[in-house]
Amino acid sequence: MAKRFLSRFLLLGCLASVVSSQAFGYAHEIVDEKTSTLSPATVIQSIENEILANEQAKLEAKRTSDLRLAVKTADTLATDLSLAPKTTLDSALLSQTKLPTDEIFISGWKAYQSGQLDRLEKTRSALPYDHPLGAYLDLWTHNLCLKKNVDNPTVNINFIDFIDRHEGSYVGERAAADYLSIVGHRINQELFNRLYRRLKWNHSETELRAWNYFYNYSDYKTEEIQTFIAEKRVTGKPLMHLLDKTLYDDLSWYWTAIMLLMQKQQWTDTLALIESLPEDMLPASKITLRSILKDPVRWVERYGRYLNQRPPRLSMLITLRLASSRPDLAAEIADRVMPELSQKWSDMLNASLSYSLSVGRRSEEAIARFERIRGHLSDNSALFNVTQIQIWAIKAYLRTENWGVVNHLIQELPQSRQNEELWLYWRARALEAMGQKKAAKRFYERVAGNITFYGKLASDAIGKAYPVMSNDSVLPNKSTPDWKNNPSLQRSIDFYRMELYGLGHREWNWATRNVEQKDYLSLADFALRNHLIHRMINTSLHSGSETMNIRQRFPTPQLKLFKMVCDGQEIPTSWAYGLIRQESRFMPTVASAVGARGLMQIMPSTARWLAQKLELDDYEHNRLTELEMNLILGTSYLRMLKSEFDGSFVLATASYNAGTYRVRQWRNSVKKSIPADIFVETIPYHETRDYVKNVMANMHTYGILLNIPQEKFRDMIGSVTPSPIFNESDLP
Fold first, then answer.
1. How would residue 4 be classed by pLDDT, with cut points 50, 70 and 90?
2. What's the CA gap between 607 and 629, in Å, rounded?
3. Each residue of 416-464: pLDDT tens digit?
4. Helix (H, G, I), strand (E, B) or coil at 732
């Protein structure tokens, strides 16, 4: 009996050193019941299972409590009459009254989007002939007619006549660009140049630039055109026609063209190019190449052992096809074939693998690949995007905090890139870590003072005050242009009233393309008077730093409502404002390309999940863009994400954009605690990376404007630590 008690005592003592006091209680219960039959490993596993179940239950209970709080907040809002909008800024978040003809126009837009020419023509006949937006219905009718009858002379003549009649307006500009896009492969050089050279704005569109190179091929050097194909994402007919010209001029370039398209993951275009070439120029039959492009892993599993009997170029193609999805398998194939390749092709494969591994946050492997090509990057500018490879190599070294190499590689970037705020900051960080504090300060000073992510971090580094309130200009009193009589601005206002935001942006930007810097503040004020907070922000940003109006750039509409909702959810009001400024620019009914809706850009599936947790029986999809509903759902979700990621604003914000699954993956790649600025800069998604930077900077600026006690920005974003034990959840 004494021995048994002692063994229990010693076992409990061992367990106490690795589990919490709560876990100790679980251990006591388990040992009392099963001491004589269970091994220590089994006991520990049982304890972990008990803790996990308990923690999950507590987490679910906390979420339920949070969501109940959201319901209570919503009920309070519904009865608080003091929240009624009192200013133009407040009322800008409410739906505007539509005109009787708006539904007719919207019906025409929907008909065009779905390619219904008959319905579009009927809609046009129902809209007054002199309607200010009638020309758009005419343009869309011309577009659909031309796509249906591309070789019909009358249809072409009518479209060109429309372009000529509307020259100087945005609808005329858009018409010329649309016409060239539709018939770019079927018209003559003279007509193309006549229309292309009148473009004031859209001439820089990649597709139109490709057609310009095609029609005026002899005016450009072959190397310039090849560089354009290598660097820009040209697709479809413009690409294939331009490749025909380029390969006719230099047939030996065909394999380089295939490799360039493969590196950009343009699988459809690669296949189209392969199909256009004689089979004897290819490393395998077209049937084989189609199989590889469609399902490379399956092909390798079936035939990979015979690769050494195939031409080396086949292994090159497979390597590039697998580099992003299966870099481990791609590396294995590349290493087997590299001894048979010339230096330049080996460099290309290593560059592609280095990039993919770095994006995948496998820094040490990425560095190993990069070191193989580091000394001769400049020799390969025709085979891969050297600057892109350099940038992601720098990020791999950032993850390992090898500051000497970071400093050196930044100096090897093109000078224009070195002067970007991003690389000025990281150069300073590297120099500071290397003990060169005076040199670091010079670079920090070039960034500090900006109200951006890196500007704030640089200010912290040298102890410089944040400049938000010290440079708040008032609107100028001098005479300004008569904005209300500008036809493009009026058309944009009509579009915004109908919630056709993309069309409104085009007209607004066309109207403001030649505005003098001194007039941007008054134009931003005009935007606010027309309930266009999003245009106020974007327009005010053009006024420069010397005439900055911070209240225009960081508005706080419906402040009392926001504060009540955010206080109820126990999250900073500044966070909600900062996120909305980035997500929707305060467009209350905007929808994204993937379906996210409203101020806080909530996906309908997420909204349904939240509504179910909230037990909102009266929730319907069409209520998602209602102001209070959108705020309640969005802030509830933010609070849950913050709790899920241990209070980290950076991880919660990243998750709001990219989803919890991906952010857990990124966090799981962290082996030790790292500064959040390194974590953010190495987020693999460009959109999420910039999103987190902007939301965090916005949040900090709003905190200052709202007089919320502010910690240093660096402390606010903190660090990112490895995932804790309990990391699974059902959060969408």
1. very low
2. 10
3. 999 999 999 999 999 999 999 999 999 999 999 899 999 999 999 999 9
4. coil
Q: Where are the alpha helices (DSSP H) in 295-342?
A: 296-303, 312-322, 327-337
Other beta carbons less than 10 A from residue 415's beta carbon: 7
Q: What is the SS3 string spanning 394-412?
A: HHHHHHHCCHHHHHHHHHC
Instruction: For residue 674, give the 3-state DSSP assignment.
Output: strand
Nearest Cα neighbor of 404 from 381, 435, 377, 382 is 435
Model confidence over 268-284: pLDDT tens digits?
A: 999 999 999 999 999 99
User: What Rg value do the Cα atoms of the chain yield, rounded?
Assistant: 30
Residues 6+ apart with CB under 8 A from 622: none
Neighbour tally for 140: CB within 10 Å: 21
Q: Distance between CA atoms of 455 and 440, rounded to whole angstroms? A: 14
Residue 14 pLDDT > 60, yes or no? no
| pLDDT above 70 (res 335) | yes
Q: What is the pLDDT of residues 280-295, one digit of tens each?
A: 999 999 999 999 999 9
The angle, 0 to 180 degrees and rounded to 10, between the axes of the packed helices 267-276 and 286-294 is: 180
Query: H helices within 149-198, ranges in order?
Result: 153-165, 170-183, 189-196
Residue with tokens 């608080």: 80
Amino acid at 613: K
Amino acid at 292: I
DSSP string, 672-719: S-EEHHHHHHT-S-HHHHHHHHHHHHHHHHHHHHTT-----HHHHH-E
- Residue 536: name the closest of 568, 558, 512, 566 by CA: 512
